[in-house]
Design brief:
Chains A, B: This is Helix-turn-helix domain-containing protein. 2 copies of one chain form a homodimer. In chain A, 60% of the residues lie in helices and 0% in strands. With 70 residues, the first copy, chain A, is mostly helical. Chain A has one domain (5-63): 434 Repressor (Amino-terminal Domain). The longest helix of chain A has 15 residues, at 5-19. Chain A is globular and about 35 Å long. Chain A starts with a helix and ends in a 10-residue tail after the last helix. In chain A, 30% of the residues are buried. At the A-B interface, helix 1 and helix 4 of A face helix 1 and helix 4 of B.
């Protein structure tokens, strides 16, 4: 994988969130994950772990695999 | 997601590794991830993070999304 997976994942998360018409605040509220942490994930600055990946996927009602389609 | 994602991920990783005919030692050697840590991931005891998820996927030559097909 050439590009930094954190950047790829962050971009994919942002696009799935926007597809749903949600702000970062809304995703934070719905998922229980801090807005600032979500912002860092979307900017490609966080090495997010499995439990949060699945929590985010569940919240967006997508399969976790969808977050890795990049 | 009902079941613990760490257990689901661990089982999926073990099956992909075995499909490839690799031992945990071989995957550890090829990926640069400690065998003991890989064992913990496969037993569902580790909250593995994005960079290691992608390193494992690259090593097994599968798309990271494959590791989430559970």
């Amino acid at each position: 994988m050439q590009e930094d997976p954190r950047k790829l994942f962050g971009r994919r998360l942002a696009s799935l969130r926007k597809e749903r018409g949600w702000s970062q605040e809304r995703l934070a509220l719905e998922s229980g994950i801090a807005r600032s942490y979500l912002g860092g994930i979307e900017r490609g600055q966080r090495n997010v772990a499995l439990l949060n990946i699945c929590k985010i996927a569940d919240t967006l009602e997508v399969d976790p695999a969808e977050l890795f389609r990049f």
